[in-house]
Amino acid sequence: MIEGFAALYIFMLAGFVGYEVIARVPVILHTPLMSGSNFVHGIVVVGAMVALGGADSGLEQLIGFVGVALAAGNAVGGYVVTERMLEMFKSSKG
Questions:
Q1: pTM of the predicted structure, to 2 decimals
Q2: What are the DSSP calls for 29-60, one per residue?
Q3: Which of 93, 38, 29 is nearest to 71 (CA)?
Q4: How does pLDDT run along the chain (94 residues), one tens digit per residue?
Q5: Which of 17, 70, 9, 11 is nearest to 45 (CA)?
Q6: Could you tell me if 52 and 65 are in contact, meaning their C-beta atoms sit under 8 angstroms apart?
Q7: Cα–Cα distance between 54 and 66 in angstroms, integer?
């Protein structure tokens, strides 16, 4: 397992790379990118549940539960926003 500062370093590096990649995406591609990121958020929910399963103390379980709840809300909200954005592109009949 990765310990201490190595895990923090990887987290900071992933955050920086993620920001740089997203900042260079043209506006026209944001809707497909958001749809793809919703898939990633689903994986985050599963990862949070696995981490919650290994929690030992009550505090770890509480933090894990909050993490699962927030990740699930983020995934659901992403799908709702994507659906609303796709509705804008449908032709109106009548």
A1: 0.55
A2: GHHHHHHHHHHHHHHHHHHHHHHHHT--SHHH
A3: 38
A4: 556 777 778 778 888 887 887 777 776 666 666 666 777 777 778 877 887 788 788 888 888 888 888 888 888 887 887 788 778 777 777 5
A5: 70
A6: yes
A7: 15
72: exposed, middle or buried (Cβ count in 10 Å: 0-12, 13-18, 19+): middle
Other beta carbons within 10 Å of 48: 19
Instruction: Kindly list the domain boundaries of the chain, sorted by start residue.
Output: 28-87
Main-chain dihedrals φ then ψ at residue 90, nearest 5 degrees:
-80, 145
Count CB-CB contacts under 10 A for residue 44. Answer: 17
Task: Give the position of tokens 């955050």.
Answer: 15
Q: Tell me, what's the pLDDT at 49? A: 82
Enumerate residues 6+ apart whose C-beta is below 8 A from 82: 31, 34, 35, 38
Tokens of 11: 């987290």
Angle, nearest 10°, between helix axes 30-53 and 58-87? 160
